[in-house]
Amino acid sequence: MAPMKPEAMTALDQFFDECHAAPPTPRREPGRGSALTVPAVGLTLGIAAALLVSLFPAAPAPEAARQTAQALADRQLRREEKPDGAVGSRQRIPTRWTV
Amino acid sequence: MKESGGAKVFLVRPVELSVATRPIPMTVKRTNVEIDALLEGARPWLYRLALAIVAEPNLAEDVAQEALIRANRSRRQLASATDPKAWLRRVLVRRAMTALKYRKVDPLTEDLTAPDQFGSLEVRETLAQLAPEDRILLALAHFEQLSYAEIAEYLEVPEGTVASRLHSARAAFKEAWRR
User: Fold this and answer.
1) How many domains does chain B have?
2) What is the ipTM of this complex?
3) B105 contacts on A by Cβ (under 8 Å)
4) Domain range for B132
5) Is residue B18 part of a domain?
6) pTM, full prediction
7) C-alpha triplet B45, B59, A13: angle, nearest 5°
8) Chain-centre distance for alpha carbon B15
9) B137, B143, B144, B170: best mutation site toward chain A, by most A Cβ within 10 Å?
């Protein structure tokens, strides 16, 4: 014979009594965290990454820096070697043709 | 003691009221340290109240945590709240209502027999069949032991409505219990 079911309200009150006596910090299953911790962890990682980037700014690639410096030096050299009267890297083009 | 016309008159010096018995001023202003202590002290109670409503330890912890975060964000309101416990209860009940309404797991198909579950399986199965409003009402009346008047003030409805709704919630619980 199956045991008799307790009265509904008695069982409910008993449940609430158990809630009153529940430990304040329940055990969590491993790997089962609060949904709130996901954005919190993401935010923390994001802030840490932003701090790292601001502390260590990316240096220009050595080869690109060398090429830029070389191009600037060549340009300066060409400018210095230009004959008198020359303007810029191109010859002056007359704006009006005379016949 | 003086005697005037035969009657004895006792001159009693006014007694300075202690801090505990002094009436609380209407405009309370709590400091940050007091609010920290208040929130830390309220944590177990909030968790247990959440547990009484949602009947699941992990979800209850989430609800209590969200309520604490919400309270922490609204420190200004909490600093001047005349009844901080009622204020926190209101925040928690709102979070619990949201959690029950929009939870991803269907309460009817959820595995209630999982080992981390809490309390009687039959009670949890029965509660899962009730509307969130009924669960909250039962928790306020049976777990928090609030009077009809307090619940009425809390829900901003007349006392008669509270009595009627509570009667319906109990009847729904009994009906679901019999099944």
Assistant:
1) 1
2) 0.72
3) none
4) 29-178
5) no
6) 0.59
7) 55
8) 36
9) B143
